[in-house]
Amino acid sequence: MGTRRIGWLAGVALAGSLVCANAMADGDLLGLYNPLGLYAGAGVGRATINQTQFDTFADVFHHIDGQPLGWNAVFGVRPIPILGAEAEYIDFGNKRLAAGPPFLLGGTTEQFLGGEAHDRAGAVFAVGYLPLPIPWLEPFAKLGWAQIWEHDSYTGVYGNLVNGVPIGEASASQSTRPSGTAYGGGLQFHVSQLAVRAQYERISGLRSFGGWNNPTLLSVGLNWTF
Predict the structure, then answer these.
(1) Over 50: is that where the pLDDT of 24 sits?
(2) Does 43 lie in the same domain as 18?
(3) 82-106: b or e for each residue (b if 16 or more CB lie within 10 Å)?
(4) Strands 194-203, 216-225: pairing kind
(5) Which has the closest alpha carbon to 76: 138, 23, 144, 126?
(6) Which domain holds residue 65?
(7) Are residues 3 and 101 in the same domain?
């Protein structure tokens, strides 16, 4: 075999190796490197909590509305370019409710001393991607189901009588597990295995005592395809 032919074959082999390496880096070697398109990621952003807290001592409702810092973690599959699925954990953060002024009721002083709400959720989504002629830009929408894990706590000074004695200062907490439809969407910018995602997510959950709780998260995050 001549020197020229040996050099030509070596050049072809080198070029082929480079093509294969690049394809594997993109998870694209005939679907053999990562056939399910497995990826994982996390994000952080601004959440909203908008719920009603029931004060069992005073038999009243307190409304909690705020925009705490939230975050999420996701594990997903994308076996075909236009469709995938995700399992996600979302922490919508904590929001405190400020104390109210003292007041007289039935000859005793009462005062709400403050409360706190913390919403978290587990969700599953089907995710659809809109193909564009710009390969690194992908609009997407997601639809699924979620369960919210709510934990509320509150403290107050109460004049209610128990065995003829005012309750005085007392604290309580409650947890509920509403579930409902989850949906969202956003834009994904990707280079090889790394993707930057900006998205909005919302859960429609009905609390056990009748009030709606619809936490949302507007976040920016990173996903890594294996």
Answers:
(1) no
(2) no
(3) eebbbebebbbbbbebeeeeeeeee
(4) antiparallel
(5) 126
(6) 34-225
(7) no
Question: What's the sign of the alpha-carbon dihedral 97, 122, 81, 36?
Answer: positive
Based on the fold, state whether residues 17 and 72 are members of the same structural domain: no
Total tally of structural domains belonging to the chain: 2
The pLDDT of residue 31 is 52
Mean pLDDT of the chain: 83
Q: What is the CATH number of the domain that holds 48?
A: 2.40.160.20
Q: What is the DSSP letter of 100?
A: P
177, 181, 186: which is closest to 218 by C-alpha?
Answer: 186
Question: Any bridge partners for residue 153, and if so which?
Answer: 116, 173
* DSSP state string for 56-93: TTTTEEEEEEE--EEEEEEEEEEEETTEEEEEEEEEEE
98/132 same-domain check: yes
Q: Are residues 4 and 74 in the same domain?
A: no
Per-residue model confidence as pLDDT tens digits over 83-127: 999 999 999 999 998 888 888 776 777 888 989 999 999 999 999
- Same domain assignment for residues 66 and 124: yes
Lookup result for tokens 């082999």: 13
7 by DSSP, 3-state: which?
A: helix
Tell me: do 25 and 1 sit in the same domain: yes
174 and 203 in a single domain? The answer is yes
Count the neighbouring beta carbons within 10 Å of the beta carbon of residue 19.
11
Whether 160 has a pLDDT exceeding 80, the answer reads no
